[in-house]
Write a structure and sequence with these properties.
The complex is a heterotrimer of chains A (318), B (391) and C (321).
Chain A: E1 4-15, E2 18-29, E3 33-37, H1 44-51, E4 59-64, H2 73-77, E5 80-83, H3 95-105, H4 110-123, H5 139-150, E6 157-161, H6 169-184, E7 188-192, H7 196-199, E8 204-209, E9 212-217, H8 219-225, E10 230-236, H9 239-251, E11 259-263, E12 266-271, H10 274-287, E13 292-298, H11 302-314
Parallel strand pairs in A: 3-7, 3-8, 5-6, 6-7
Antiparallel strand pairs in A: 1-2, 1-4, 8-9, 10-12, 10-13, 11-12
Chain B: H1 2-31, H2 33-55, E1 61-67, H3 72-83, E2 87-92, H4 96-104, E3 110-114, H5 118-124, E4 127-133, H6 138-167, E5 180-184, H7 194-225, H8 227-232, H9 238-266, H10 276-300, H11 304-321, H12 333-339, H13 343-357, H14 365-385
Parallel strand pairs in B: 1-2, 1-3, 4-5
Antiparallel strand pairs in B: 3-4
Helix pairs in contact in B: 1-9, 2-7, 2-9, 7-9, 7-10, 7-11, 7-13, 9-10, 10-13, 10-14, 13-14
Chain C: E1 5-18, E2 21-34, E3 38-42, H1 49-57, E4 64-69, E5 72-73, H2 78-84, E6 85-88, H3 100-110, H4 115-128, H5 144-156, E7 162-166, H6 174-191, E8 194-198, H7 202-206, E9 210-215, E10 218-223, H8 225-230, E11 235-241, H9 244-250, E12 257-263, E13 266-271, H10 274-287, E14 292-298, H11 302-320
Chain lengths: 318, 391, 321
């Protein structure tokens, strides 16, 4: 069996003059959780749709489980699972009926369907709710049910397009538990997300920006290789004022700094030399009456790296 | 004078809001080119469909003839029927009984019974020919009846002209009646006359369906998209939102009305006998009742699909019950009652009255009054049911 | 009434009628939002955040209790509220077939802003939202992040003193999300606007002055983010075990371990004494042949606090049942 479930080489998609995906290459191993990250409109969904055979490939090569999605989509789709941004659940069917529908659509036998139904209901934590209308389920359940329906035919590759958008942290963790359980069984998972803490959980992540792959590695290595500058994490008594002061100093040219942004209530400043700037910033804020409770040179978070990787192109108007 | 200032400011804001909503709706209608083109072309298309579906449905109907006169006039009359292309004479039989037998056996679909002394009766202006049609075949009945009627009349017209030329107009004493009257056993559309008859009714139906559909889907679509909540939270009052949605659609409906009327006059040659201005004013009234009804539907329909289905139901009811095709007299009371709830029922009569017959308001004040009451009621009720909250 | 309180609810209850009886979506919520504050309403899906926001705005009727904005009762003074507040609905949509400028103008006129005021305000507002370059673009053709900014601009065009935002950054990438929150920060600093926001993002909750945590229709915590984080006992250790499942089964039973949360392939462990317990956990796992990578103490974030508080609530609920 092939080690790679997905192999993509110079994949390109053009819509008229607009290049949505521009010569992208990557591979996803079986059992790997591969994060596919980028700003809105960067080409994430377009890439996945090409791999699913839903969009024509303009140029380049893609192999999913050894099938060419542009010519062998029908054969391939029996082994591929897909959960889109818009859950494709039928709101007027019950949870159980949704699973049955997708099971039948994938041609499962009656016995197997019964077996899978039970498995999926347990996996999604839907025991006792399996006969409720899908419309009445809350976000977390719906989303786990959608995943269940997407994998009812035991696919070997699963594409998840923003599966956790708008879902609360508890449900998101449960969901990632399911993703890991799948990967453990050897399923290749390619997932897009806007939650950078989720991206940290991927074994490897690719950053796509304006159709181009700008970085591809493990989260840990990306933090070392793709961060222009070092990150200072500042905890100040009045973070909003501290932010205002730092921004003013940056604009006045008194503080050499790539990027200053909130990270929750903390301020992350991306600077060329963290050690040298630590005392400077503390003294500056203190002189303006803002006490700094801590200022630390930290390993950047993936969010810092993401913003650093996509910002130069992001700042240009669309 | 703060009170007056406040009132003035309130009024100014109200006008500002209303014009904002009207403008927004208008931009949205104009920007959706595809739908706009559809809305403007569909009526024309539907008119063509109707025109040809009606005049060309069935021709060469197999026919049996029982001619008791066997004179020149009767032969000429049968000849004219054949020449119309609607009737093929398949057999000659002795009398009415045999005609009915032939129809019952399915050998023919129509029969023409001509009484004895046909030529003499024509001379006296009281000729009667009987056309018997196969009631089980609605299409044959429909086109056979209208064809027989039209042929008989146009043929009889020719006779009349002939007669006038021989006897002299004065001797007729101004009482120019048709010398031949066809009578039918299948009572069907007594004053049927193809497009002259169809076009005014069609205008009513097309406007009815369009106004209901436009108003209903415009509201429901916004609700489905989630726009409603964002607009509901502004100070705009329900009545302003309602009027704002009605005005641009009203303009659009008037344009469609003009297109259909002009097409009817210039393409299908329907004579417009009445006063155009009273027609315009009354159609405005009718359009408002339709838009109001559509808005009322939008308060019931939860999805666009439901709104479209209700509109479709109305279209069907309009076609069947308003007297566009089928006459309303023989309908059972309950069906009549239902048809009385559809504004088009009144406007079909009004449109025919003005366009075809050229009568004035005094002949149809009852229908006009009903439409006025109807419009006021639906608009007020939909304003009252239009929610300012989500539950 | 207290001039400093902008939004207030007292024992607010909202029930929805369903086939067999009623569902209680809001179950006696009492909260206050003070002038100039950024108030975050957080909670799991279906906790009642959106319903609460809608009732406060008078978009839904309340079953019992009180609710008001700027001293105006939500039910009685509906239109006075609508003239004075800004709102971005969850999964809102602006008319997509209008351009950016047409949208802002439409909302300005509906809100009764005079033409002269519009000429003064709209350019500033579009500049503020970073939309100056896109005035003629159809709203439906904006990127996700820009749509949110347009919605914000539309909700601010009548210069409201308070804005209510229901999950305004849903489905938006981190860069745009950051930009959106920077706009909110500017709004608060420069205009003193009171901001009420429902959010599923815990890092956004950290940026609020005050957080209300809703669970099954009730407000189970109501405090500053710092205080809420202190509600979770113990300190937090993070590490990545070489073999996840056995480690995850073993750790909760070790002494001094208060709570275990999973974080992808990592474990988050609340302990009484991080130095000591860290060493003990490493030793205990090593005995099973499991190594711990990157063992370190981290600050408790809203994320961990949220999960901990919600878990305790649902455990308490099922114990009671």
């Amino acid at each position: 069996m092939d080690e790679y479930a997905v192999q993509v080489e110079d994949l390109t998609k053009r819509f008229g003059d607009f290049t949505a995906v521009d010569r992208v290459s990557f591979r996803v191993r079986r059992g790997e959780v591969y994060g596919w990250l980028g700003p809105n409109g960067a080409g994430k969904t377009t890439t996945i749709r090409m791999l699913l055979g839903l969009l024509k490939i303009t140029s380049g090569r893609a192999l999913v489980l050894g099938y060419d999605p542009s010519t062998q989509a029908k054969h391939m789709q029996a082994h591929v699972g897909y959960m889109s941004q818009l859950f494709t659940l039928y709101n007027d069917l019950t949870a159980r009926e949704n699973i049955r529908f997708y099971g039948q659509a994938y041609g499962l036998s009656r016995a197997e369907l019964r077996h899978r139904q039970a498995e999926i209901i347990e996996m999604a934590g839907l025991q006792g709710r399996e006969n409720e209308l899908t419309a009445t389920l809350s976000g977390g359940w719906k989303q786990r049910l959608a995943l269940g329906c997407a994998i009812v035919h035991r696919p070997e590759v699963v594409f998840l397009d923003e599966p956790t958008a708008g879902v609360d942290p508890v449900s998101r963790r449960d969901f990632w538990g399911l993703i890991y359980a799948m990967a453990k069984k050897g399923v290749a998972v390619m997932v897009t997300t806007h939650y950078m803490d989720e991206a940290e959980l991927c074994q490897r992540v690719g950053f796509i920006s304006e159709g181009r792959l700008v970085a591809l590695d493990t989260p840990d290595r990306l933090k070392k290789t793709h961060m222009r500058g070092q990150v200072l994490e500042i905890n100040a008594d009045d973070p909003e004022r501290a932010m205002g002061l730092l921004k003013a100093a940056q604009q006045a040219g008194e503080l050499v700094c790539d990027e200053i942004a909130f990270y929750g209530a903390q301020i992350h400043a991306v600077v060329p030399d963290a050690q040298a700037l630590q005392p400077v910033i503390t003294a500056y804020l203190a002189s303006e009456g803002v006490r700094v409770s801590s200022i630390e040179w930290i390993v950047p978070t993936l969010e810092d790296v993401f913003i650093s990787a996509v910002t130069p192109s992001h700042k240009r108007p669309e | 004078m703060r009170g007056v200032d406040n009132m003035r400011e309130g009024l100014r804001n109200r006008i500002r809001r209303l014009s904002a909503i009207i403008q927004k709706e208008a931009i949205q209608i104009l920007r959706d080119r595809g739908t706009l083109v559809m809305l403007l072309l569909m009526p024309v298309l539907e008119m063509f469909l109707f025109a040809y579906a009606v005049s060309l449905t069935v021709d060469h109907i197999p026919t049996a003839v029982a001619d008791a006169s066997m004179d020149a006039q009767s032969r000429a009359f049968v000849g004219a029927l054949v020449a119309s292309g609607y009737f093929d004479i398949d057999m000659y039989v002795a009398d009415e009984t045999q005609v009915i037998q032939a129809i019952d056996e399915g050998r023919v679909k129509a029969g023409i019974v001509i009484p004895p002394n046909f030529a003499a009766q024509i001379e006296r202006g009281e000729a009667q020919a009987l056309v018997i049609l196969d009631g089980s075949d609605a299409a044959s009945v429909s086109s056979g009846y209208s064809a027989a009627n039209a042929v008989a009349q146009s043929w009889a017209m020719g006779l009349t002209v002939e007669k006038v030329a021989r006897v002299g107009a004065a001797s007729l004493g101004g009482d120019i009646s048709l010398p031949i009257r066809t009578s039918t056993r299948v009572l069907y559309n007594p004053d049927r006359d193809d497009m002259i008859f169809i076009v005014p009714g069609l205008i009513a139906i097309l406007l009815q369906v369009m106004t209901i559909g436009q108003a209903a889907t415009a509201v429901v679509r916004e609700r489905e998209l989630g726009v409603t909540e964002q607009i509901l939270i502004t100070p705009a009052r329900p009545i302003e939102l309602l009027i704002g949605k009605m005005v641009p659609n009203l303009v659009l409906a008037v344009i469609v009305m003009l297109i259909v009327v002009l097409f009817g006059i210039f393409w299908f040659g329907v004579p417009f006998k009445g006063n155009p201005w009273s027609f315009v004013w009354l159609s405005l009234l009718f359009i408002i009742s339709g838009l109001g009804l559509g808005l009322l539907i939008s308060t019931v329909a939860k999805t666009q699909r439901q709104a479209r289905q209700i509109t479709l139901l109305f279209m069907l009811l309009c076609m069947l019950l308003t007297g566009l095709i089928y006459p309303r007299q023989p309908m059972p009371p309950i069906v009549k009652a239902v048809s009385n709830l559809i504004p088009a029922t009144y406007f079909v009569r009004i449109a025919r009255g003005i366009i075809t017959k050229g009568v004035g308001l005094s002949f149809m004040w009852a229908d006009v009054l009903v439409l006025v009451v109807y419009s006021v009621v639906v608009v007020v009720v939909s304003a009252l049911t239009f929610k300012k909250r989500l539950d | 009434m207290d001039e400093q309180v902008v939004i207030s609810t007292q024992n607010l209850v909202k029930q929805f009628q369903v086939k067999d009886g009623a569902v209680t979506a809001i179950d006696g919520v009492t909260l206050q939002v003070r002038r100039g504050e950024t108030y975050g309403l957080i909670g799991p899906d279906g906790a009642g955040k959106t319903t609460t926001t809608r009732v406060i705005l008078g978009l839904l009727t309340r079953t019992s209790g009180q609710s008001s904005i700027l001293g105006h009762d939500s039910m009685r003074d509906t239109y006075r509220i609508r003239e004075r507040v800004g709102y971005i609905a969850q999964q809102f949509a602006l008319p997509g077939d209008l351009t950016v400028m047409e949208n802002v103008r439409f909302f300005a006129r509906v809100q009764g802003v005079s033409s002269a005021e519009q000429r003064r305000r709209i350019p500033d507002l579009l500049e503020f939202a970073g939309l100056s370059g896109f005035t003629d673009r159809l709203a439906s053709r904006l990127s996700g992040g820009m749509k949110k900014k347009l919605a914000l601009a539309c909700s601010l065009v009548h210069e409201p003193q308070v804005v209510l935002l229901d999950e305004p950054t849903l489905g938006v990438d981190p860069v745009s999300r950051r930009e959106f929150w920077n706009l909110l920060g500017d709004l608060r600093r420069e205009r003193g606007t009171t901001i009420f926001v429902c959010t599923p993002y815990m890092d956004e909750a950290e940026r609020c002055n005050w957080v209300g945590l809703m669970y099954e229709g009730r407000l189970i915590a109501h405090d500053s983010p710092g205080k809420i984080k202190q509600m979770v006992p113990g300190r937090l250790l993070e590490f990545k075990p070489s073999d996840f499942v056995p480690a995850w089964r073993l750790v909760p039973d070790l002494p001094g371990v208060l709570e275990v949360q999973t974080y992808g392939a990592m474990l988050h462990i609340f302990v009484d004494d991080p130095d000591r317990r860290g060493r003990e956990i490493e030793a205990a796992l090593a005995a099973q042949g499991i190594t711990c990578e990157g063992m370190r103490e981290i600050e408790t974030r809203m994320e961990e606090a949220f999960i901990s508080l919600i878990r305790k609530q649902s455990a308490g609920a099922s114990d009671a049942a």
